[in-house]
User: Fold this.
Amino acid sequence: MSRILAPLALLWGNGRARIGLVMLGGFILMAVLAPWIAPYRPTYGGFAPMQPPSAAHLLGTTQLGQDVLSQLIWGARVSLMVGALAGGLVMLIAVVIGLVAGFLPGWVDDVLSLLINVALVIPGFPLMVVLAAYIPVHGVGVIILVLSITGWAWGARVLRAQMITLRGREYVTAAAFAGEGIVRIVFREILPNMTSLIAASFMGAAMGAILGEAGLEFLGFGNPQVVSWGTMLYWAENSSALLAGQWAWIFAPGLALALVGTAIAFVNFGIDVISNPRLEV
Amino acid sequence: MAKRFVFLVFTLWIAVTLNFLIPRMMPGNPAELMVRRIVGQGPVNPQLVHAVEIMLGLPVGSMAHQYVLYLGNMIHGSFGVSYTYFPYPVMQVIGQALPWTLALLGTTTIVTFVLGTALGAFAAWRRGSWFDTAATVTANFTATFPFFWIALMAIYVLGFLLHWFPINGGYGAGLTPGWNGTFLASALDHSILPALTIVVAGTGGWLFGMRNNMIHVLGEDYVRLAVAKGLGGHVIALDYGARNAILPNITGFAMSLGTLVGGSILVESVFGYPGMGYLLYNAVGDQDYPLMQAIFLLITVGTLLANFLADLAYGVLDPRARRGGESS
Amino acid sequence: MRDLTVAYASRRRHSSVTAVRGVSFDVNAGEFVGLVGESGSGKSTVAYALLRLLSGGGAVGSGQVVFDGEDLLALGPEPLRRRRWRDISVVLQSSMNALNPVLTVRAQFRDTIRAHAAMSSAAIEERIGELLDLVKIDRRFAAAYPHELSGGMKQRVAIALALVLRPRLVVLDEPTTGLDVVVQHAILADLRALQRKHGFAVLIISHDLGTVLMVSDRVLVAYAGRVVEDHPAAGLLEHPHHPYTRALLDCYADPEAEHVRITYIPGLPPDMGRLAPGCAFAPRCPRADERCRREDPLPRDIGDSRVACHHAEDPPVEGETAPGAYRSGASCVEARPRDERPAPPVLTVAGAVKTYRRRHQSVTALAGVTLTLAQGRVTALVGESGSGKSTLARLITGMERPDAGGVHFGDLDVTRLRGRALREYRRHVQMVFQDPFSALNPANSVLYTLMRPLGNHLRLSPREARSQALALLETVGLVPAETFGAKRTSELSGGQAQRVVVARALAAEPEILVADEPVSMLDVSIRAGILKLLDDLRTDRDFTLLYITHDLLSARLLADDVVVLNHGEVVEQGPADEVIAHPRHPYTRLLLSSIPNPRRARAV
Ligand SMILES: Nc1ncnc2c1ncn2[C@@H]1O[C@H](COP(=O)(O)OP(=O)(O)OP(=O)(O)O)[C@@H](O)[C@H]1O
Ligand code: SF4
Ligand SMILES: [Mg+2]
Assistant:
C-alpha cells in the first residue's frame, strides 16, 4: 500500500505536480460524470444550428444544432480514454523492448537498439497518417493501434538506458548470489527502482497519444460520429466555424487539450524533480 | 562518421521498405478501392483494375519480384502517376510543393531551435528570476497546445479579426509563381502566419530541453571551478554552461524534429499552404495512394537527412565523439 | 577564518542543517595546513564558504573570512571576481570532473589568464608550458581534451591550473581521493615540493589523517562541523590532545611492524540535523562525563595548539592508552599469529587468462594467474586498481568465464556452470561487495534482503527464514535486530549497510567468502569495525576468505597469506607477515611505501 501512496504523497508535496494532479483529477471527474453534468445529450441535434455562445448554449451550437458544451464534456471521455489506453500500450511496448534490450547485452541489445534508433528517426505523424489512410475502418480503436505502433521508441530508449544503469548496480549481482532467478531479478529487484521513470514515460506517452489522436481526427481519420475533442475540431473546421464567428466551438476543445497536456506536463515535472533533485527551483 | 553514414543508409532502406510493405499488409486492394471511386458505385471491371494497377505501378507478380521492381523504381526516382493529378507523375506534383515546405520548415526549424535553445539557456542561467518563471510557464502552455489549434486561433485573431495577414494559401490569388517581386512579397506575406504558428508551438520543446540540461551542467564541478577562477559571467554562461548543455539537445534533435514535422503537416493543412503537408492531407482525402506514399517517403528522407546533419554537428561539437565513437 | 557558521536549507523538508558551527583558524603565508575529518564533518563546506562557492542551499550564517585584512564575505561581485584565483585558487574534490569537457587544456588555462591579466598569446603559451613542466606533464597535452587524460593527469592539470596566477593560497579538497595509492603518493610529494619552492600557502582537505600528516605543517581536525583540534603536525602524533584525534590515530598502524593492531571508534558521527546539547563527540568518547553532555566545549589554547575538549589535559582513561602503545579490548583488530598447520585446498585457479575487448583495443586483465585458497584460511589479494583483482573475483564466483585456464571448487569445474548449477554453486561461494549502498536494493527492507538467500539456498520456510535472518543481524552486530530488520536498506549508514551485506553473504552458510574491497568506501573510524567483524566471523564460522584490497595494512591485519597482483600477474605471494615485512618484489615495495601512514609520515 505504502508503495503506491508514498510516491503520490511525495508528488503532492511538489507545488507544480499538485496543480497538475488537481487539474487531471478535474478532467477525469468531468469525463466520469459527463451524463450528469452535461446540460444535453451530446448528439441531440434539435437546437438551432450554428448559434454563437448564449445563455442557453454557453459555447454555442454546431452545424447540426448540437450543444457544444455538452460535446466538450462528453468529449473528455474519448480523449482521456485514448490517452490512457494508447499511453498504456505504448508503455507496454516500450517497457518490454527497453527492458529486454537493456538486460541482454550482445546481439539482442544490438538488434533492439537499432530498432529503437530507426523508430526514433522515422517521423511518427506522417507514418500515422499513412497507416491510418490504409486501414479501411476508421475509429478510436484504429487510432489507438496506430498511435501505439508509432509512439513507443522514445520510452524504450529511456528505459533501456535506465535498465543498463540499474543492471550494473551491485544489488542485481547480489540478487543472483542470493539465488534469485532472472524473472524475479527483473521484476522484483530492478523494476521497482524504475517506477518514477515508467510513470513519467507513461505520462509522456499518454500526452503524445491525446495530441496525436486529436491531430488524426482533425484530419478526418476518426469516426466523425464519435464525440471527441478531435472530431469537434474536425466538424468546426469543416463548417467554417471561425468565419462564422463561432470561435468558442474551436477555442474550447483546443484549450481542453492544452490543459490536459499542461496537467500531464506538470505531473511529469514533479516526477522529474523527485528523481532528479537538482532541478528543484 | 562512417558508422553514422551506414545508419543513414540503413534507415533509408527501412523507410523505403516500410513504404513498400504498408499497403501490401493492409486488407483490401488499394487499386481496387481507387477503381471503385472511378466507376462510382457500379460494378467493378477487373480489366480496369488491372489497367489502374499497371498505370499506378501497383502489385503484379510475386512479392519478391515486386520488391525488386519497386527498389529499382525508387533508385530511378519514379514513383508512378498521381491519381488526383492524372496523368502527371507523382514526382512532378511533389516538385511543386517541395520548395514551399523546404522554405517554411527549414526556416522554422532553425528559428525554433535557436530561439528555444537561447531562451532555455538564459532561463537556466537566471534561474528563479521573473524571466525564468515567465519563460517556463509560457512554454509549458505552448508546448502542449496542438499545432493546428494554434493555427486556427492565429487565423481567427490575426487574420480574420485584425486582417493583418492573409488566412489561406501560399500566395495571392491571380499571381503566377515565379521569381518576381510581387509574387515573392505575396508568398512571404502568406508564410508569416504558418511560420509564426510553428515557432510558437515548437519553441517550447527546445526551451525545456535546454533549460534542464543547462541547470544540470551549471551544477557540474567545472562550472564551479570556472566561478572560482574568476571568469566573467558570459564566459561561464557560454563556454562552460551552454556549450556543454547544447550537446544533449542535439541528441534529442530527432524527437523535437519529429514533432515539428508532424505539426507542420497539420499547420499547412489548416492554412491551405501549398506544401507537402497540405498535399499529403489532400492525397489522403482523395485516396491518392501513390502520391501519399511518395510524400511520406520524402518527408522521411528529409527528416533522416536532418538527423544525420545533427549527428555530424554533434560529432564536431563534442570532442569526446570525434574519435568515431558511438554517441549514446 | 573567524567564527564561521554555515547552514544548508532543505526546501523539501523545510528544515536546515548547520554543517559548520563556529569555525575559526588561521593560515599563515607560506604555510601548509591540513584539515581532516570524516565524511560529513563539514570539511568541504568550510572550503566552499572560504571560496564563496557554497551551493545547494548553503549559506554563511555568521563569521568572517579575512584575507589580507579584508573580509571576503563582504566583497561585491566584481571586486570578488577580480580577487579570485589571484589570491585563492582551488583544486576540487572530484577533479575527474573539474575540467570543462569541451575545451582543450590550453583553452582552460588561457581563459583563466585572460580573465585577470593582459598577456600576449606567446607569453600565455610559455606560461602554460612552464606549468605543465612543473606538474610533470608533457607540453603537448596542452592541446588535449580532458577525456584524453588519465585520472592522475587530470589531477596534475588541475593543480597546474591552480598555480597559473601564482596565488597566495591554494585550497585542495581531497586532491587525491579516488586515485591509486601509488599515484596519490607521487602527486602529494610533488605538491609539497612545489609549495616549498614557490612559497604559496596551502589548505589541504582530506578524510585521511595519513595523507594530511605526510604533507602538512599544521593539522586541523574537524568533527561534526567544528574544528576540535588545531595542532602543529610535528607534535600531533606523539601528543594528540583531543580524544577524537587520539582515536583517529589509533585507526592506523604500520603494517610492517611485528605486532599490528588497530582500534576503531564505536558508534557513528552524529546526525547534523539533530545535534544533542553538549559535546558532539560525547556519545563515542571514553572520557565523556556529565559536564561533556551538558556543556559544549569551546576551543582553548593548550601550548601551541587549540583544542575543544573539557578533558584534553587529563591523563588517558580506561579504554584509552598512551599514544602509540598497544591496547586490547573489544574495539580492536589485531593481526593474529601465523597458523602453521597445513590446510587442504578448497578452490584452485590455474593459469587463468581474461581479456576484455573495448572497441578497438583489448585489455588483458589477467595474464595467467594461478592461485589456491586453503581451507579456513584468509588470503589477501592486493594490487592497485586495474591490476585484475576484481576480475579474478568474478571468475572465482562464476560471474564470468576465463578465456583460458580453469577454476575448480573441489571436483567442480566452475567455468562450466550455468543456470541452475551456478545457482547451486552460490550456496558454497558468496560475495561481499565494495559499495554497500550499491549492493543493497534501496527498494527492499533489510529483512527481505536477508530472507531471500535463506529461502533460496537453504530452502527455509518464511518463518524459519525470518528468525534466522534476525539471528544473522545479531551476529553482525545490528541490534536490536527487529528494529534494523524493519528498516529500508536506504535508511542505513554506510557501516550498517556493509554489515547487512556481510550478513546476506553469510546467510547461505558458504564455504568460501569473497570480499572485494569491503571497507574502501567507508570512513576510517568505521572501517576497523567491519574488519573486526570479518575477523571474528571467520573464527566462529570457519569459512575460507578471499579478501581483496589495495590496502596492505588491512591485508596484514586479516590475512594469513598475501598474493600481490600487478598487471594481471601474480608477482609475489606468501605468508602475510613475511611478504609485508620483507617484500621481495619491487612492486610490493612500491605499494608499501605509498601507504599514507601517519606513524611514518613525518619522515618524508
Ligand atoms: N547541498 C547540501 N544540502 C544539504 N546538506 C548538505 C549539502 N551539502 C552538504 N550538506 C551537509 O553538510 C554537512 C557537511 O558536508 P560537507 O560536504 O562539508 O562534508 P565533508 O566533510 O566535506 O564530507 P566528505 O568527506 O563526504 O566530502 C553534512 O551533514 C552534509 O549532509
Ligand atoms: S569534551 Fe568531553 S566528550 Fe567531548 S571530547 Fe572532550 S572529553 Fe570527550
Ligand atoms: Mg568533501
Remarks:
- Chain A is about 70% helix and 0% strand.
